[in-house]
Design goal:
This protein is mainly alpha-helical and about 140 residues long. About 50% of the residues lie in helices and about 0% in strands.
Length: about 140
């Protein structure tokens, strides 16, 4: 019976490849987009709102002047706009914030106005936070 080195060589090279593939599946980018069991307003949502939205939606900003929506604090987000609430805790589908961010409204009022839409990952984080009760956590 003749034993060849090919199966052994294949096993030696396949193991590191499998490890590399496994590392790619759990990369920080992929983990960041995975739905977290609990989304924190202060750690996850507020930094995103400040980065993408607060340039307009803070006192003195164009979005604030038009709608009175302040996205620089939990209180501002929950206060909503001069037209009504933006967040309905537990119900992202009915929350105006998600309607605007998901672009399920007229092009004239999609947010962020005149800029690239927030990523699916970012919108899903906000959606999860609202679904979890929109807590000040």
């Amino acid at each position: 019976m003749k034993v060849t080195a090919r199966p052994i060589l294949w096993m030696i090279t396949a193991l590191p490849i499998a490890a590399i593939i496994g590392m790619a599946v759990t990369s920080p980018l992929n983990r960041a987009c995975a739905a977290e069991p609990t989304v924190s307003f202060s750690d996850d949502i507020l930094p995103l709102l400040k980065w993408r939205c607060a340039s307009c939606h803070q006192p003195g900003g164009a979005g604030y002047e038009k709608s009175a929506l302040d996205l620089t604090s939990y209180q501002g987000v929950m206060k909503g706009t001069s037209f009504g609430p933006m967040v309905i805790p537990g119900d992202p589908g009915s929350s105006n914030l998600m309607r605007l961010l998901d672009w399920r409204v007229s092009a004239a009022i999609r947010m962020p106005h005149g800029k690239k839409q927030l990523s699916t990952c970012d919108r899903d984080s906000i959606r999860t936070w609202i679904r979890e009760g929109a807590k000040d956590n």
